[in-house]
Amino acid sequence: MSVWDELQGQAPVVAQLRAAAQGEGLTHAWLFTGPPGSGRSNAAKAFAAALNCEQDDVALRGCGECASCRTILGETHSDVTFVRTEKVTITIEEARQLVSKAGDRPASGRWRIIVVEDADRMAERTTNVLLKAIEEPTPRTIWMLCAPSPADVLVTIRSRCRPVSLRIPPAADVAALLVRRDGVDPAIADRAARAAQSHIGIARRLARDPEARERRMETVRFPLGLRGVTAAVMMAEKLVKIATDEANSSNDERDAAEKVALLASLGAPESGTLPPSMRSQVRQLEDDQKRRAKRSITDSLDRTLTDLLSFYRDVLVIQLGNAVELVNVELRSELEAYAAGSTPEITLARMDAINKARVRITTTNVAPLLAVESMASSLIQQ
């Protein structure tokens, strides 16, 4: 299986990266951009594998079968560093560690590669730490930065990177990938791909988890019963609870396992009070877990609001004449009835209210419940 197989519907990008892996237009810094679900981090990983592939024939690099390709795809290759943050931002200290790592010569592969999957989560002062390393890299080092759009990266960094622009793949391609790679039933795969709006990671989660599909449908149906301030407040509380429960369900078990592993590595006693040196390390782990939990809840709530946005997207499609396929086909009759009771202008205003809430939640310190309550009051049916 080639490393390029996951890049569904990205033929121009695959052609560009294949050529670079073969030595045509290869440069020291790359910027992968595309909306969530476009596969920008997968593209960077595939490119890293192709660059260090063990095939002698350059046309075959990215085979996906050699030890180098397998370890890079598994993120265990000694010469390829993957950076993603589960906190709100990447810290300056983490950036300095990357600069130090980038100065090392590759141990076994052709290239030392640094893949920063959350380049948009670096403050300006943090990005400046990377600037010189990207501007004047060591001879065998390649940087790959990933962000939703070029505007999310500091212009001084952006100007020194070769752009790779990805687009959302067609839902049919995502469904085919789920069937081929994960063995998902074709009908469920098609429904999950549409519901995820072609976001491969979310589509896989929806296809595998019936409860996730039920939670999403509950979210999408909320506007149908939104007829007053009381209903708006209740909807806001429910949306935040759905997002929080989903985030916490994946964090609690992981947090406990991390603490057990840390105590074991420190040789902590099975009972009694921990020595001061151990307590400080446990406290640091707990602080990191709290920051990760905040990021998880924010990301989960943003996904929940994206699902809610799909309802109004479908309403607008119907109001404008059904020019494209609906995301929530199962609700067509309810959507048509709802669309008849408003205008495209009202629907656009409601979509704008949801997007404003998403921005407030992800970029400011506003309490999520307050932001969602404000949004919900804008969605009340007259």
UniProtKB/TrEMBL annotation:
GO terms for molecular function: DNA-directed DNA polymerase activity. Keywords: Nucleotidyltransferase, Transferase. Residues 268-296 are annotated as: Disordered. The keyword Nucleotidyltransferase applies. It comes from the Bacteria. Its EC number is 2.7.7.7. PANTHER family: DNA POLYMERASE III SUBUNIT DELTA (PTHR11669:SF8), REPLICATION FACTOR C / DNA POLYMERASE III GAMMA-TAU SUBUNIT (PTHR11669). This is DNA polymerase-3 subunit delta. It comes from Arthrobacter bambusae. The lineage of its organism: Bacteria, Bacillati, Actinomycetota, Actinomycetes, Micrococcales.
